[in-house]
Fold:
Amino acid sequence: MQVVNPQMAWLGLLLLIPLVLFLIRKPAVAIQMSTLVFFKMLSREHRESTWLRRLKRWLPLFLSLAMLGGVVLALMRVRMADSPGEVRRIVVLLDRSASMGARLPDGRTRIQAAKDRLEGRLGRLSPQVSVALIAWDGRAEVIASATSESSSLFRAMREVSWRPVEGNPAEAVKLARTFARDQKPAEIWWVSDSASPPKQSDAERDREVRWISLPVPGGAGLNVGITAFQLRPLPMQRARLSCFLELASSGMAEAGGEAKLEMQIGGASFPPRSLKLSSREPLMLDFPVEGKSGQEMHLRLVAEGDCFPDDDEIQVLLPESKPVVAVRVGQRDRIDPFAHVALQSLVSDGELQVWSAEPEQWPVNGADVVVFDNWLPDAWPEGVPVLVLNPPKSLGPVSTAPLREGGVPQSRIRGSNADHPVLFRVSSERLSVVQDSSMELAPGLEVLWRSGREPLLAAGEWKGQRVVAMNFSPRRSAQLPLTDSFPILIGNALYWCAGQAWTAGPLSRQSLRTGGMLAVKGKQVTWRQESGSFRGSKLLPVQRGLLELDRTGIWRLDTGETGAAHLLSLQETREAGHAPADPQAGVQPETPVGPVLPELTWLVLGSVLGLVLIDSLLFHRFAV
Amino acid sequence: MERETDRFGSSGEEWFEPAFLDRLRALFLRLRKRRRHRWSAKNLRHMPAAAHNREFRDYRSYSVNDDFRSVDWRVYARLGRLFVRLFEELQDYQVHLLIDTSSSMDRPDGRKRRDVLRLAVALGYLGLIGHHRVSLHTMRDRVVPVMPAVKGQGSIHRLIDVLHKVEFGGSTNLRACFEGFRPVRHHYAVTFVLSDLLGHEVEITEQALRRVGSWPGETHVVQILDRQERAPDGDGEVHLTDGETGEERRMWLIRSDLQRYQELFEGFLGTVERACASRQVDYLLWMTDRDFEESFTDLMDRGSVLGGRV
Structure:
């Protein structure tokens, strides 16, 4: 026996009402008569209808109980027996990832076509079948949980629309299996344009859970899209960026097809690039971005017959730049004057600021790079890049042992990695330095200059922190401070340590993929997109400090922080161009359904009708 | 149907008020006046020739065919005209009063008991002032004489005293009562059976009444009933108790059942009336909700010698 709405069972308490009324009915009236002779005569006449009279007495109670019980059972939707193979529960897994937004020749999107087909199929189910609807893209969302109300199900289903997010059905499949376990036999309907659904496991076979594939009706068969994007700073060029792109296509001939890459920066259009794309493998591009900080850059990939334009666009804001702030900390009487001069020569408005601080002012805040000049604090600073000039003691990644008084001159300096950014345009020849201490370095720091076995210059990352260490004294070094290489070396070390500190925000924020969450500070976010299916501007709240990247375009928080999210999915770009050969292929036969009304309801209705007829017969035929 | 509450009086004072005798006297005077009026309109020669004694009442002129023995010769000697003497027959009847003292007469509320006692007093008084003998018997499972024949108006108080002491209870056995009772033969018997005639099956009552028809003299059956017994009301589930036997019965009554009950009861009354009529026994249905004087007058109008039958 199955109960579809067990929560209605509490209405069974209403059955107590007629019972109580029957129990508290008017008691028999005691009457003293002169004689019972005539009542006995009456009884003899009634003898033939005594059982009818007794029946008539109980009939109103039975009728009330039957009618109330019938209503309660009807609301509970109790079923006594099942038809063979009849399905009790259907779980619909509806794909709403980006590729479901591809347009069909009739103008509908794939998800719209899928919903239309679903509605027709679900509408033919009997009311006894409960249906759960799970929509999935990067994550799963339960749209309707195990309901028999078709109107509310259809209403909820109509609200489901595709999202520009890469699909990952794992969570949805797990949820679907959980729903299907509750009632059997069950079916899981896989409605997607992606690959075939997960196979039915042995456990599911035992539990009578069947997977049904309902492929989406066919698409146009051609799609191009941008599947990867990144803005990178050009090496050793402050405030200059390069753009990396990966372009893919689906449905194009193996020989390739024509596409164009259009670019606009700050409203100015650049000549489009003609490209040849092939479905076999994506095309990668890397080119410098000629734009100023804060300008908006649009990239758009165009191909004729493209059925899915929402993966063709990149819209970003070129990051704002700010000066790198370097703070030099050292005792006034011990700072190196040549280092000081070199640092001062690098200062440029809008690009670099150099501040000096005494050891007593340590620690300092707001520095992009800290320069320790012949001084080290008691504790190694974490989270800020460090340039150490002639460390007087061991600390952090640098361990030193002082050499003899006056240092050791080192004239044979050998460079080990001339391509390192710190050594960019720095000549390592004809230099001589005075080494004040012997230095040992932590793993992660690469020796760039050595003399013999002694490291003189090292750079690298230690615990995620960029460090450059020089353990020679420029003041006492004859062939270094006055060369052109020394300020270049200092400058390279500064900028290399600073990294992207010249940007107002991390560059990575401009190349975010949809489908994830970003921890932010701010209460509201404004999304803006100039083209595509989601063009326009929308103000949304930020829930619990997390920004959901569920759409493409530029976002800006009320704190001023900005970023951009893009689809960037090779999987979705390829799926959008894929079309099944036969839309009906793989469609399983209709789900066997049960009777329109469950058996118990008929039984109760029949009982009530029977009782009413008996009551009428007793009254009209037997005058009872 | 009355509920088992509000019994109509349980002591003698309620059924017999001092003014009742005064009302009786007035009633009897009216009856006597009516009787004389009827006699004056009829030929006294057609008066039944009673065997016992006559009382001079009046003179009238001689007419042809008058019995010469009734001529008053002294008046002729004095006046020279012929006059005949008119006599009032003085029958010395034996009035038997049989009152039903079973439990049913005390149900549902005592009105029947009240009326039967009053009727007994009235009939007894009528007999006593008519110089007849009056005896009192009670009926239950048998007839029991409770007062021997008395005569004279002064005996009315004795009658009332005896009736005061009569107790009601037990069950009725009409057949035994009627078979066991026999009115006297040496006097003209006028027997009044005062009962509700309930407690038996209809056939048994009918058979018992056949015995009544064989009694000498004149017999009057007065069936005293309450309105509720004849036409009970109330439906639904009822718990009935027989007032005489104590038998209990639980029934579910509907309107049609009550209508059928009335039909059965009326049928019973018809059977009783026919049984009495077939044996030349006078029958009167006495309803307790009717005025006593009216009912008593009807009884007398039915032709009892006590009421001056002509």
Residues 585-589, 592-596 of chain A have pLDDT under 50 and may be disordered. Chain A touches chain B through 23 residues (CB under 8 Å). The longest helix of chain A spans residues 50-76. The first strand of chain A starts at residue 2 and ends at 3.
